[in-house]
Design a protein that fits this description.
Blueprint lengths: L1 E6 L3 H11 L7 E7 L4 E2 L4 H6 L8 E2 L7 E5 L2 E5 L4 E4 L4 E3 L2 E4 L3 E3 L7 H4 L6 H12 L6 E5 L3 H13 L4 E5 L11 H13 L2 E4 L4 E5 L2 E4 L2 E4 L2 E4 L3 E3 L1 H4 L18 E2 L2 E6 L12 H19 L14 E5 L3 E6 L2 E5 H18 L1
Parallel strand pairs: 1-2, 1-9, 2-5, 9-20, 11-12, 11-17, 12-13
Antiparallel strand pairs: 3-4, 6-7, 7-8, 10-18, 14-15, 15-16, 19-20, 21-22, 22-23
Helix pairs in contact: 1-8
Length: about 350
C-alpha cells in the first residue's frame, strides 16, 4: 500500500481529504489523517468561544469516515523530508509515500518581550479555551486590551462587548485605523459601531514589551487585567524548523502544483504555504481542492490542469446582529453580511461534517 499522510485536520486538511474521496481512490492508496484532536475546530469562530457566546461543542466537526482513511492522534515533533518520516511525541513515527502539510499557524510576536508569556491567544482550540476562562473570570470593570485591530481582533472585541457589557475593552493597533488592510469605508463603519458600543480603539500604539498587568507603548504604561494577542501569525514551529525555501513570512515556497520543489511528494496547504493571498480558511480550502485534483491527475499519469484560485471575499461579525464584508471590490455593512457569515458557517459545518 502507498501511504498519503495528511498532517492537520483543519480546513485545508479536511478539504483535501474530501477532494480525494470525491473521486475513485486507487485501491493501493491509504489515506492517514494525523491530528492532535479527535475533531476539527472551526477556527474562524474561535473569537466567539473566547467571548463565551458559543459552546465548545458548537465548533466541533467530526472527521470523515472511509474504508481507505485511517485517523491517528498525536503531536508532530518534526518532519524528516529525506527519510520520508513524520516524528511524533513518545518516539513514534509514521512513514509516507506522499505527504500533505496542513498544520496551520501560531501567533507571531514580532520580538515583543513578554508577549508569549503575558498574553492570551485564539490560535488553537486549547489556547482559546484558556482565553475563555481568563476573560470570563474577570470581575466587572476589568480592563481588557486586544493587541491587533485586524479581523480577529475586531470580531473578538465586538463579541466580548455583547457577552460582557461590564468590561472595559480596548483595541490597540499600530496602524492609523482598525482593519487597515480593508477599504477605509469599512474601517469607519466598524469604528462607529465600536464608539456606539463603548469599545475604545487606540491607533498608533507601538507595543515595546508586555508584563503581567501592563503594556508598554514606548514609555507609556497601559494597565491591563487581560491582554489578548491578535497581532500576527506565522507557520507552526515544525514548519519553521524545515530547511526549505521560505518567503519573508516564513511560509514555504512551492511550485505550481503546491509541492516543495526538491520533494515533489510533499504538498503544503494553507497558512504554511506561500500563496498570493492572505492566509484564511477560504484560501486553504480552495487550494486543497486544487491539490486534490493535481494528486488524482498524477496518479492517473496525466498532466494536471491548473486553474486560478478565486476567493469569494471576506465577511466579519460585529456581535450577533451586525457585520461587514468585502465582496470583490464592493464593501457591505450591516445586517446582511452578518446573515451571510452565519450562512457560510452553517454550510461549512454541513459540508465538512
Amino acid at each position: 500500500m502507498r501511504k498519503l499522510v495528511i498532517l492537520g485536520g483543519g480546513y485545508g486538511g479536511l478539504a483535501i481529504i474530501q477532494g480525494l474521496l470525491d473521486h475513485q481512490l486507487p485501491e493501493d492508496i491509504e489515506l492517514i489523517l494525523l491530528d492532535r484532536m479527535p475533531f476539527q475546530g472551526l477556527k474562524t469562530e474561535f473569537y466567539a468561544l473566547a467571548a463565551g457566546t458559543v459552546a465548545d461543542l458548537d465548533l466541533r466537526v467530526s472527521f470523515p469516515k472511509h474504508p481507505q482513511l485511517t485517523i491517528k492522534y498525536g503531536e508532530v515533533t518534526s518532519i524528516d523530508l529525506e527519510g520520508k518520516k513524520v516524528h511524533l511525541a513518545l518516539a513514534e513515527e509514521i512513514t509516507y509515500d506522499y505527504l500533505v502539510i496542513a498544520l496551520g499557524c501560531t501567533d507571531r510576536y514580532h520580538g515583543v518581550e513578554g508577549a508569549d508569556q503575558f498574553t492570551n491567544s485564539i490560535q488553537s482550540f486549547t489556547n482559546t479555551r484558556r482565553t475563555y476562562q481568563r476573560l470570563n473570570d474577570l470581575i466587572p470593570y476589568s480592563q481588557v486590551n486586544i493587541i491587533g485591530g485586524g479581523l480577529s481582533g475586531v470580531e473578538l472585541a465586538a463579541e466580548l462587548r455583547e457577552s460582557r457589557p461590564d468590561l472595559n475593552i480596548s483595541i490597540l493597533d499600530r496602524h492609523s485605523r482598525v482593519l487597515s488592510t480593508f477599504p477605509s469605508k469599512l474601517s469607519i463603519y466598524v469604528e462607529h459601531w465600536f464608539k456606539a458600543h463603548d469599545v475604545d480603539t487606540r491607533p498608533h500604539v507601538s507595543v515595546a514589551r508586555i508584563e503581567d498587568g501592563a503594556i508598554y507603548n514606548g514609555s507609556e504604561i497601559i494597565q491591563s487585567d487581560a491582554t489578548i494577542w491578535t497581532a500576527g501569525i506565522q507557520p507552526v514551529l515544525i514548519v519553521q524548523d524545515l530547511q526549505v525555501a521560505k518567503d519573508a513570512g516564513g511560509r514555504i515556497i512551492l511550485n505550481s502544483y503546491s509541492q516543495i520543489a526538491e520533494h515533489p511528494e510533499v504538498y503544503v496547504i494553507g497558512d504554511c504555504a506561500s500563496l498570493p493571498f492572505a492566509p484564511s480558511a477560504q484560501a486553504a480550502g480552495a487550494q486543497a481542492e486544487q491539490v486534490a485534483a493535481v494528486i488524482h491527475a498524477l496518479w492517473r499519469g496525466e498532466t494536471p490542469k491548473l486553474h486560478a484560485i478565486h476567493l469569494k471575499g471576506t465577511l466579519g461579525a460585529l456581535g450577533k446582529k451586525a457585520g461587514f464584508g468585502l465582496m470583490g471590490k464592493s464593501s457591505v455593512m450591516g445586517r446582511v453580511p452578518r446573515l451571510l457569515k452565519s450562512g457560510v458557517l452553517w454550510m461549512s459545518k454541513r459540508n465538512l461534517g
